[in-house]
Amino acid sequence: MPRGRTPRQPARTGRQDRVARAPIRQAQGRRLPAKATKRGNNAAPKGGKRAASSSKSVPTKKERYNPLAPDRISEILKRLDQLYPDVTCALTHTSAWELLVATILSAQSTDVNVNRVTPELFRKYPTVEAFAALTPDQLEPDVRSTGFFRNKSKSVVGTAKKVVADFGGQVPLKMEDLLTLPGVARKTANVVLGSWFKIAEGVVVDTHVHRISRRLELTTNTEPQKIEQDLMRVIPREKWILFAHQIIWHGRKLCIARKPKCVDCLLEDICHAADKTWSTVDMHKTAKA
Ligand code: SF4
Fold this sequence. Notes:
Layout: H1 61-64, H2 70-83, H3 96-105, H4 111-124, H5 128-132, H6 136-143, H7 149-167, H8 175-178, H9 186-196, H10 207-215, H11 224-234, H12 240-253
Bound molecules: iron/sulfur cluster.
């Protein structure tokens, strides 16, 4: 096998399963690197000399790689468009109010779980006024299976009362108004503004966006608000809504938390995540979920 066509060998931890069967891909016409190592492709082999470079000046590490370079960001967005061209919010809803309730219920739960509960919930309480007339303990049995049901009941009923009292029964369209509702933080507000009202006020940062943004080196932060600010700086505003949907779908389908399916991922050759399960490129220690 000629040099430059060798996939990274399985780690001792055994995490790079399927490596033997993995196809050697030359994605999008880019040259596959020589054997990828943590020391980098240009690193001198142990005990040997680094191969002479044809270029006169050797670029510094920083010049060689910038994870936030506009070309790289465009490439990530282009490939996400190829992978997930028309994705939307997976929470079942028919109004801004229903989406707001479903998003509150989705905390620490899955969309599938929430979608099992909400059709019956909205049949039983069809309007925001019907929710506002409840006490939290009356709602608890209906949302119990989504987890954290006491807090969620309090948030949903409290939010309904405030929407009725302060906003005429209509879910507000402004971030600052949404943030006054009990149990509503920026993530929930961004979901409602983006998915229902199509207003790009920020980027939804849920568990998938948190993990994958770090793996793709779009941020080094760990706090959702800081991650959102970083993403708002590098992702064009017109892409904020779609980008979050795409990343959330990517997190469900391929870039899963414990064992990402890197061998099947279209972003593989531009992803340097430290916990990849298969790689044709350098893996960066700092690119951790
Ligand atoms: S290559 Fe692996 S870690 Fe990177 S985005 Fe794809 S699935 Fe996630």
